[in-house]
Amino acid sequence: MSRGLRAAGAPAPATIILGSARSIGNTRLLAEAVLENLPGARLFDLNDYRIGPYVYDGAHDTDDFLPLARDMARSEAIIFASPVYWYSMSGPMKIFFDRLTDLTDVAKPVGKSLGGKTAYLLATSGKHEAPDCFEAPFALTAGYFRMGWGGMLHARFAEDGVLSNEARAEATAFAAAIHARLTPVPLSAS
Known about the structure:
By secondary structure, this protein is of the alpha/beta class. It has helices at residues 26-35, 65-72, 91-99, 108-112, 136-144, 165-182, and strands at 14-18, 42-45, 77-83, 118-125, 148-156. Helix content is 31%, strand content 17%. Helix 1 (26-35) crosses helix 6 (165-182). It is globular, with a radius of gyration of 16 Å.
């Protein structure tokens, strides 16, 4: 196993799957701004794992994908984080998404366990908005696995490595909305 994979502990309320060519970059900054406002949440950087591309014969059954997928499935909220690369998700995230196919065949129980959870997306780019086509693969994949779709937060980075106050406030609000969905409302005492 890779250095990033650790034994599964107690389920986390939310898991962030970070997929970027840079582990310490703009997408990480946005993910950490959300993470610091989600108590008990975890962040997994795909660069810390050995995940091979999808192959039809299942030859990657000993890499880190399935243990990571099992850990991810233990959360109620799954947050994907990717920069916009050529109008689409990053290469590391695309490999991870291709491997979700394993959850429809060789690891079907893990795939079925995603049903009822909620997926979200964090996106970064140098533009004011993500391209219209960017969110669709994430939302459609969530729907395929019978997950709810919680939406996307996109942050524009005008300067590399600097999260604006506006983006930080949006990340805090996004995390608060996720946290509110995870926290049951107490019944009032009558």
